[in-house]
Fold this sequence. Notes:
de novo design (two linked rop proteins); mainly alpha; elongated; 23S_rRNA_IVS_sf; 23S_rRNA-intervening_sequence
Amino acid sequence: MKPHRNLKAWNDSILLLKDLYLITKSFPKEELFGITSQMRRAALSIPLNIAEGAARTSKKEFVRFLDIAIGSIAELDTLFIISVELEFLSDEDFNLLNHKLETIGKLAYGLKRKLLSER
């Protein structure tokens, strides 16, 4: 079974990850093991935790993994702001990524609320 594939939050986070990888290719090479790596790890954490949570047998466990994904969303939001301040990320790329991240965050929070209300 692959229940995560039916979740919009998971699908959208895969698309965000693809965009992020393309955009961070232009970041300074000296940041490969710094901000670039941290952004990619945080972005990767989102669909991975949504998938792992969806595969769990209890709603409580799913909520726990959604909380981890939501934490990664907050981390990535902060990294976007830092990257703009350091002029690694253009305003246009920031707006694109930030819009996608906000949508994923709303979906993840909504899914969490739904699971909590079903208990």
